[in-house]
């Protein structure tokens, strides 16, 4: 079995500061947790940025640059920058990190979905909010579509190609595989692809082993052997779905973007804690973990010396 790439999604744009005191907010906290994830064995970190005063998702390129530079000066991590940003951000704000910093890897959302977070306040039983924006941000998703139209998919693909940035193709549901096939046939994307199956978002495919097998088999029928794949899953399904992916030969993503917990009812104190746990599971299965440079070779990345930061 090939070595497995472990990604840590450090902060995301879903969870809010009132949900966990351990969610990194400032550039220093985000970079520090990324470096700790590297020390725990992650080869890739997925980076969102936040307003350091309020914790609200942000698209400030100065903050992005600070985080990227802090990470690069300390280790050779692969940084996968977000182009999802925060919910409700305009498309052009989400994309500008790619031409600005020309990262090795960036997320590329493969289609539009209803992206529902409006039930989180009730499910998490949050009674007091640290910041006024939090509850409103979550509740507005009852009437929200995360837009990734064919027009914007083509615009994103052009920007990625011009920056020589590898797209990490976020597949929230099986129909998005057809979207990607269209982009491949029209020359907007080139194989081999890097697919990430994102499971458990309200409005997208539910997290189950059967659905993961369905996604993988559909991708295999569509692209043959010309893809590498990973899986991430929301909340309590994070470790079960990642473990299933390990047994199927896939790569895995953990991190506080996807789940705030290290176990049942126990908040994770860091991203590194989740990285350590999935690596322990992989080692029990006799699976070797890829270093950042081995992951670069697996994914066909341009190298850290060719980024724009």
Characterize the biggest β-sheet. 8 strands, parallel, barrel
**Main CATH class:** Alpha Beta
What's the quaternary structure here? single chain
| Helix-strand makeup class | alpha/beta
In CATH, the topology is named TIM Barrel
Number of helices: 12
The rough form would be described as globular
> Numbering strands along the chain, what is their spatial order in the largest sheet?
1-2-5-6-9-10-11-12
- Give the mean pLDDT: 97
Query: What's the gyration radius in Å?
Result: 18 Å
**Any low-confidence stretches, pLDDT <50, length ≥5?**
none
CATH architecture: Alpha-Beta Barrel
Helix content: 25-40%
Strand content: 15-25%
- Record field, number of beta strands: 14
Q: What is the CATH H-level superfamily?
A: Aldolase class I
How many independent structural domains? 1
SSE run: EHEEEHEHHEEHHEHEHEHEHEEEHH
What gap, in angstroms, lies between the N and C termini? 34 Å
SSE topology:
Blueprint: E1 6-9, H1 27-40, E2 44-47, E3 49-50, E4 57-58, H2 61-74, E5 78-81, H3 91-95, H4 97-101, E6 105-109, E7 113-114, H5 120-123, H6 133-139, E8 145-146, H7 150-163, E9 166-171, H8 175-185, E10 193-199, H9 209-223, E11 227-233, H10 238-247, E12 251-254, E13 261-263, E14 266-267, H11 271-284, H12 292-299
Parallel strand pairs: 1-2, 1-12, 2-5, 5-6, 6-9, 9-10, 10-11, 11-12
Antiparallel strand pairs: 3-4, 7-8, 13-14
In short:
The chain is α/β, with parallel strands linked by helices and about 300 residues long.
